[in-house]
Design brief:
With 142 residues, the protein is mainly α. It has two domains: 1-16 and 107-142, no CATH class; 23-104. It is 59% helix and 3% strand. It has seven helices and two strands. The chain has helices spanning 3-10, 30-41, 46-55, 62-71, 76-83, 86-102, 122-140; strands at 111-112, 115-116. Strands 1-2 form a two-stranded antiparallel ribbon. A hairpin with a 2-residue loop joins strand 1 and strand 2 (115-116). The chain is elongated.
Length: 142
């Protein structure tokens, strides 16, 4: 099971996963992939699309995006239209701006309550999450 799923399973009431786009400039299909995933999100299939993108990361191209969309039974007309929606471009630009301000340099980068996670294994997640939960508990008990 992927580590993020393990974290969400271990902390179902305490952890909320927020995904931000940060397509790297040196990756020619990173931005189109982000656009395609957000278009899939409009049909409730973001994570499924996201996971298939990463499964086929070495084969990213427009044909692959179309194949994934068909495999997920997306409404292809809506998918194509949504990829051209300027709202998606705005969302990605906002995510990139926030990432730059937070010091993101590569992907994936993980933050927990604004603190960059260095050890991206389950033990690393647990240590930082537990530390943050302890702070919350201390504040409540004051």
């Amino acid at each position: 099971m992927p580590v993020l799923e393990q974290v969400l399973e271990k902390y179902p009431q305490d952890v909320k996963l927020v995904f931000k786009n940060f397509p790297l400039k040196n990756h020619s299909f990173a931005r189109p992939a982000a656009i395609a995933a957000l278009a899939a999100s409009n049909q409730g299939k973001f994570w499924e699309f996201h996971d298939l993108l990463f499964k086929h990361y070495s084969q990213l191209n427009e044909q692959q995006f179309q194949r994934i969309a068909r495999d997920l039974n997306l409404d292809m007309d809506k998918f194509e239209k949504d990829q051209k929606d300027p709202t998606i471009q705005t969302m990605i630009a906002k995510d990139v701006s926030e990432g730059n301000k937070a010091g993101v340099r590569g992907t994936p980068t993980v933050f927990i309550n604004g603190r960059r996670l260095k050890a991206r294994n389950l033990a690393g997640f647990q240590a930082l999450i537990d530390k943050e939960l302890e702070k919350v508990s201390e504040r409540r008990n004051r």
